[in-house]
Prior knowledge:
By secondary structure, the chain is an alpha/beta fold. Helix content is 29%, strand content 29%. The protein folds into three domains: 6-81, Alpha-Beta Plaits, CATH 3.30.70; 91-178, GMP Synthetase, Chain A, domain 3; 183-380, Rossmann fold (3-Layer(aba) Sandwich), CATH 3.40.50.
Amino acid sequence: MNKTGKEDTQFLKIEKDYAEKFLKLIKKKFSDEKFIDKRKKVIHSGPYVLFPLIKNRETVNKFIENNVKDLNFEIINAKGEIDPNYKFGSVEEALTGELSENIIELIPKSYDVIGKIAIIEFDRFNSLSADKISSYKKKVANAIVKVNRGVETVYEKKSEVKGKYRLKDLQLIFGEDNPETIHKENNSMFKLDIKNTYFTPRLVFERKRLSLLKFEKKEVIVDMFAGVGPISIQIAKSNEVEVYSFDVNPTAYKYLVENVKLNKLKGKVFAYKLDVAELVNSSNELGNSLKNNVDRIIMNLPEQSTKYIDIACFLLKKTGGVLHFYQFCEKPNSIEKGIENLKTKVNNEGWHIEKILNSKIVKPFSPKSDLIVVDANIKIVQ
Ligand SMILES: C[S@@+](CC[C@H](N)C(=O)[O-])C[C@H]1O[C@@H](n2cnc3c(N)ncnc32)[C@H](O)[C@@H]1O
């Protein structure tokens, strides 16, 4: 493209009287962006209309050859003027003409946007020739940036979430390698480092749901696995509660502390860099002061939450408290399995489930399992 925003372009030149018929015929078979380059202006010239065409349009060309011979048009070369305000509607649209249709079909339909960073996983590119993959990925990353105005950096997800800190491997494909960003969610702001802290925007509705529950004034809440604080902070934002938030990852703790300051809260969030298992040690002062004093506990460590039920029973009021308990459970009947699992663990501690307040699939996690949540009132057996 030259400095004036003009680019060598092929146009379909057709008489005005035929233009509408031509467009209708093509639209029946393809969506607009499969043949017209919508970033460029349509030119009206005397009795003709000139439609700017995308570069790669194999299937459209074939269709035109076989079906629209009689419409009296020609393909000409001219300068196409790019509309600087044109916004692509989707990554597929931004890539039309850049990549062939069979490659575009292999691009994941979704990717995460966290502040100025996008994360994409190419799970269907393995079938392609290795020497081309890297340039395809760069084009996809470029398209993500075009579609999402705030996005400056794109990383590829290279592993599942793993380890105690629940982190994933990321590889830069576009922009500056700076993993720190500020993400806005449900009227709150979260500063975080996507390489060194856990964060997923996919729990946005679950966090909203939790923040809208009915809380008692001065209710004492423990967020056992707080990360950078999205649950604790969203609850404390509009509720006059006291949240004790824990994370064992020093980087998550650092951002948790910053995020408490970054958001105007009605309630209080007390942040601790601690393995929650430490709370039951008789020498742990905080554990001693929270022991049987907590009204509600959030346990958002789905792969290992069952390991910490003893800590929950140590902290909750013996007269009863609420657990928000997240697990990965196998399909089918993941919810029933999750409830049974929780019941067994709670009973082993000499407690019982008094009432299931809510249970649901938060999101499908893999072809074989779901992320589920059980909200339950539990109480010590007298
Ligand atoms: C799945 S993430 C949840 C983060 C947060 N609740 C959210 O919605 O983004 C789990 C977090 O628990 C922390 N974690 C893991 N084991 C822990 C433990 N024993 N004590 C405290 N934090 C722990 C990890 O560092 C990680 O940040």
